[in-house]
Amino acid sequence: MSQQLTTSRTLEFQDHSHKTNVFGPMIPRNPQFTDHFVDWVDTSKYTLTVGGSSDAIAFSATAGGQCLFTLGQADNDACMLAGKLIWNGSKNCSLNARVTITDVSGVALFVGFSDAETESNLLPMDYKDGTLVTTADDAVGFICDADKGTSSIYLVGTKNTTNATVVDSGVDWGDTETKELAITVDTNGHAYFWIDGVSVGKVTDAVTAATLLCPVVGGAVRAADLGETINLRRLSVWEDET
């Protein structure tokens, strides 16, 4: 078999093109590498809301790098990192985050979009005391909250203060596990979710498509399990060009 594949015009993947179809590194003859690591790990580029006692969000110099959330010393202490209000569903905004939770039974996590860079509750949406609590007017994202009494990851949204139907992704988050979380919001305000590259559900009427949103990652202490950590290893956001 020849070691070279030559095509005169294009190479088209059909049928299973939505699945993995390239194995091994793609190495172009003249590669160009762009390092976006500094952009997302530099917390000075984001709005940080650090409430409670001893909460902290800071760069942590570990292999591969991470933005480390250290949660507080009292139940429900919370902190939140948010980007700028420049994204919306009208432009098919998308978010991809890579997150590690050390102890799932001791934290609440929200990853997604919100209409405010900071919230009085510090999380746009959560399951405090087992009930869905919505602070934002418009928000969409993933929730994993020990107060819900499960390690399941839930898909949530709120459109102009009206909560969408919550979807259970069917995926549980285990201690020390790292998850790849992805969301796309379409021009109708519907949201599509992926975990570790697998589609896990859709939330209809998740947000108001025209409302400007910011990317948000937030964590809170649960069950007085103090000083737990959440590691944000990557955060990428994009949408259609204007």
TrEMBL record:
<dbReference type="GO" id="GO:0016787">
    <property type="term" value="F:hydrolase activity"/>
</dbReference>
<protein>
    <submittedName>
        <fullName>Uncharacterized protein</fullName>
    </submittedName>
</protein>
<keyword id="KW-0378">Hydrolase</keyword>
<dbReference type="InterPro" id="IPR023827">
    <property type="entry name" value="Peptidase_S8_Asp-AS"/>
</dbReference>
